[in-house]
Amino acid sequence: MKSLNAIRLGGKEVLPLVEGGKGISISNGASAGAWAAAGGVGTVSCVNADSYDEDGNIIPQVYHGRTRTARHDELVKYAVDGGLAQIREAYERASGTGWININVLWEMGGAQRVLHEVLDKARDMIHGVTCGAGMPYKLSEIAQRYNVHYYPIISSGRAFRALWKRAYHKCEELLGGVVYEDPWKAGGHNGLSNSEDPLQPEPAYPRVVALRKQMNEFGLHDTPIIMAGGVWYLRDYEDWLDNPEVGPICFQFGTRPLVTKESPIPEAWKQRLMTLEEGDVQLHRHSPTGFYSSAVRNDFLRELDARCDRQIAYTAEPIGEHNVEFSLGLRKRSVFVTRGDRARAEAWKAEGFVETMPTPDQTLIFVTPESRKEIHKDQADCMGCLSACKFSNWSDKDNHSTGRKADPRSFCIQKTLMDIAHGGDLDNNLMFAGHGAYQFAKDPFYSNGFVPTVKQLVDRIATGD
To answer: pLDDT tens for residues 369-424?
Structure first.
């Protein structure tokens, strides 16, 4: 393994090792501060981070507003208060070593409000902003206002070209690096485009080389690329080091830092990660963002898969093969389905899935009465955690509606991520993880259930392992 040399970011030399940001209370001040103290770049997530009361206890994020807009304002305040609390902790733990970045999802509800308020109060404690899940055109403008670096997360050279041409060329000096996130291997939300096959992964190297060529055309020869998604052993990337086709390179780790002493996820979650097998992480499209997403295949995802399987198309009037009358709800409103779908529907109803729920795509899904009640409650309790949510139809726009029907095939992402992060059921919540999480069970570093400190992990990674 070649020696891992420091890289210069924002006028400071740091290890080219970056902690990946994970929202909803996961990448916090303890983990980010420890990562920076080890000489790398720590990342505090400002996506609904935890804040604390005077006794140091986590403040539950309970919503009291009677309207979605009122609850949305509460959500933004929680995000700002939590972000500031975690940044302060990370800054104190780092003690001037390494760098502290913050991370937001561009498509989270109130993203720009959160960024402005956090940067206004904490710009002197952080180095830069990492941002993905969408096309963050205004990221450079916000970074320039507060004189911090920015790190867009993209999954192709084409996406970066669009960002550069529209906005980033106006603020080249603060572009700290470009995060290339492998859309087939990364955990959380993935940047697969409509032209890419989710079942046909493409190797990262040629895509990164294409990104570097694109960046070089814009004069960004010295701007680092940060490789993210699926990175486990640096020895697998030895030929990327000191490689003119790749140029300056850093490596981002999102999944491995989950299993450290400083990681705030519950111990049961850490232990579950260390038992996963290859293929246990599923790339799915149930997320209310509309993006592909990677998470551990558990009962939560299986139920969403089954919900989508129990689905038939319908028409309001008899058309073609949709000529069999089918009654909906207490009012027995009639729609028309095919004869085969009518038989399938009756079979599902015999199994207890007696409630029908319409989708925006002129289909019906079949659920139990309990599930229907929970879906309706979660939609009614929406607090606008996304800029556009297909589950609740909330939108950041003035009318606060996406203009489409709420989609019962999805779920409330805020609810489930907050629950699992704070000790909730591991089988009945969304459990984000990268596709390399099965390595925990194979990597001898974690033998006998060993959970390292962040410093031990960073030192281990630097050796190539």
So the answer is: 999 999 999 999 999 999 999 999 999 888 899 999 999 999 999 999 999 999 99
Q: Which helix (H) or strand (E) holds 222?
A: none
CA–chain centroid gap for 395, Å, is 19
Per-residue pLDDT for 4 more than 90?
Answer: no
Angle subtended by helix axes 68-94 and 29-37, to nearest 10: 30
What's the confidence (pLDDT) of residue 330?
A: 65
DSSP string of 4-27, one letter each residue:
---EEETTEEE-SEEEPP-TTTTS
Look up residue 212 and give its amino acid: R
User: Given phi > 0 = left and psi -120 to 50 = alpha, else beta, which region is 352?
Assistant: left
Task: Write phi, then psi, for 322 (nearest 5 degrees).
Answer: -80, 70
**Rounded CA gap, 446 and 458, in Å?**
14
| Domain 7-277+437-462 fold | TIM Barrel (3.20.20)
Q: Where are the alpha helices (DSSP H) in 138-266?
A: 139-146, 157-166, 204-217
Dihedral of alpha carbons 291, 295, 299, 302, sign? positive
* Contact yes or no for 256/152 (Cβ under 8 A): no
CA Rg value for the chain: 23
* Residue 72: band (very low, low, confident or very high) from pLDDT cuts 50, 70, 90: very high
Residues in the chain: 465
Q: What ranges do the domains of the chain cover? A: 7-277+437-462, 299-421
Exposure class string for 19-46: b at 16+ Cβ within 10 A, else e: bbbbbbbbbbbbbbbbbbbbbbbbbbbb
pLDDT for residue 399:
86
Express each pLDDT in 30-71 by its tens digit: 999 999 999 999 999 999 899 999 999 999 999 999 999 999
Angle at 144 between CA 17 and CA 252, to 5 degrees: 15
